[in-house]
Description:
It is a single chain. 64% of the residues lie in helices and 0% in strands. The chain is mostly helical and 70 residues long. The longest helix is centred in the N-terminal third of the chain and has 11 residues, at 4-14. The radius of gyration is 11 Å and the shape is globular.
Amino acid sequence: MTNTSALRQKIEQSGLKYRFVAEALGITPYGLQKKIENVTEFKASEISKLSKLLKLSAAEMTEIFFCRKA
C-alpha cells in the first residue's frame, strides 16, 4: 500500500507537476491520482521510474511504496 501523504509531499518538494510525473510514467494524471490514493497499485516499473524521478533513497522508497498501513 502506498503512503499517500509521503508520496504527495515528495512530489511537492520536487517541484514537479502531477501531469509531468504522470507522463513520465506513461499514464494519465487521473491514473496517477488513482495509484496515489491506493485505488490501483503501482507497477514495479513505475515505482522504479518514480524513485529515480523524485531522487528517493532506498529507505524513502520502502516507506512510500511498501507501507503497511491498514
